[in-house]
User: Fold this.
Amino acid sequence: MKKDVVIQWIKSEIILIVAAIAAIISSFFVPLSIEYINYIDIRTLSLLFCLMIIIAGIQKCGVFESLAQTLLSGNRSLRILQIILIIAPFFAAMLITNDVALITFVPFTISILQMAKEEKRIILVLVLQTIAANLGSMATPIGNPQNIYLCGFFKLDMMKFFVTMIPISLLSLIILGVFSILCKNRNIQIHFPEKLSI
Assistant:
């Protein structure tokens, strides 16, 4: 019984285990010393922790799912629907991180394309959503953990960071927009079986 519990825990925490093993291996190349304490960026970790708590709370309330449902339900053209499904994670990732944006929109995308009998588009749209979420997240300091660290390390304020990244983000958005409209167009009706409310 205990063996099954351990195996189940290992399967559920595989990333943590791999990271721990990698950390142990790397310690052989960099001997243990008091300098290890300086490697920990408390400010970045604290900001990331607070951001994750806020986002988890909002997500638990169903805010993102409700907004996505409102955005996607109703009578739509397939082309407009595809544009929304790809571009929405781009902008959402700027505020709620790329991971949460994908967790929010991927399940909706799969169910919506299945409702529209467009299962063949699922892989393409999911790939473009992943690209969109990562490109959108680079535009703001809170889009992903790397940005939080870079802002802290280089002492960039939020506006300066945004102004620096906006040209690349706009170019990315244009390219995504071009890929988003490449589909045959037809009208489809999307109705969710259960209406979510905030």
Notes: The mean pLDDT is 80.
